[in-house]
């Protein structure tokens, strides 16, 4: 899930996702909610409760923060085929049998739009991967602008990273100006 800097309606999303996984036979201790902090600070205490938005989820499954500067917590997947971006992602996500990212789709100043792939990179990436995304090589590219995916190098690299992982699903949301949920979409991140 996104960290506290993104107003994703987790309290509406997480309970049915967790219940569905448990109804399908997954044990609660096998389910982990990973907070995609990127380079932001961890979400803890009351802030974590607000972020998750549901006390049952917090008491039923593990909810853990990502730490981008913890090198040992990341799996090294090599580099992307096109632009040689270093790919180091949180080992908990990489090694999971089922990967579901949740996010919010809205214009993003550099990646075109936010959502699924951005929750993975930079969300659960090591700081080397994140800093590469925020380098002049990407930020100065004329196609790296909001509401543009066509030829956007950041978007293309994020999708390349998802492809390196294999099967990844996303529950993406759209909210209105009052932060009310207006659309939910589920599918494979492509």
Brief rundown of the structure:
The chain has helices spanning 10-23, 45-52, 55-60, 91-94, 116-120, 127-133, 136-139, 153-165; strands at residues 32-35, 62-65, 74-79, 86-90, 100-104, 107-108, 112-113, 169-175, 181-188.
Gap between N and C termini, in Å? 18 Å
Q: How many strands, what sense, and barrel or not for the largest sheet?
A: 3 strands, mixed
Report the portion of residues in β strands: 15-25%
Instruction: Decide which structural class fits the backbone.
Output: alpha/beta
Describe this structure in words.
By secondary structure, the protein is of the alpha/beta class. The chain has helices at residues 10-23, 45-52, 55-60, 91-94, 116-120, 127-133, 136-139, 153-165; strands at residues 32-35, 62-65, 74-79, 86-90, 100-104, 107-108, 112-113, 169-175, 181-188. The strands form four sheets. The protein has a three-stranded mixed sheet. Strands 1-2 form a two-stranded parallel sheet. A two-stranded antiparallel sheet has the order 3-4. The chain is globular and about 45 Å long. The mean pLDDT is 96.
List the helices and strands and how they pair.
Blueprint: H1 10-23, E1 32-35, H2 45-52, H3 55-60, E2 62-65, E3 74-79, E4 86-90, H4 91-94, E5 100-104, E6 107-108, E7 112-113, H5 116-120, H6 127-133, H7 136-139, H8 153-165, E8 169-175, E9 181-188
Parallel strand pairs: 1-2, 5-8
Antiparallel strand pairs: 3-4, 6-7, 8-9
């Amino acid at each position: 899930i996104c960290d506290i800097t993104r107003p994703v309606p987790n309290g509406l999303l997480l309970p049915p996702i967790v219940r569905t996984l448990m109804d399908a036979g997954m044990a609660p201790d096998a389910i982990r909610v990973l907070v995609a902090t990127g380079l932001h600070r961890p979400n803890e205490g009351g802030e974590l409760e607000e972020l998750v938005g549901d006390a049952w989820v917090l008491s039923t499954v593990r909810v853990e923060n990502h730490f981008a500067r913890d090198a040992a917590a990341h799996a090294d997947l090599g580099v992307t085929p096109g632009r040689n971006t270093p790919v180091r992602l949180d080992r908990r996500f990489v090694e999971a049998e089922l990967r579901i990212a949740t996010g919010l789709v809205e214009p993003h100043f550099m990646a075109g739009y936010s959502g699924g792939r951005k929750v993975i990179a930079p969300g659960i990436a090591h700081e080397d991967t994140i800093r590469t995304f925020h380098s002049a090589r990407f930020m100065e590219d004329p196609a790296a602008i909001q509401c543009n995916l066509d030829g956007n190098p950041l978007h293309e690299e994020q999708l390349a990273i998802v492809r390196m992982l294999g099967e990844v699903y996303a529950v993406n949301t759209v909210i209105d100006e009052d932060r009310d949920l207006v659309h939910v979409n589920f599918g494979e991140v492509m």
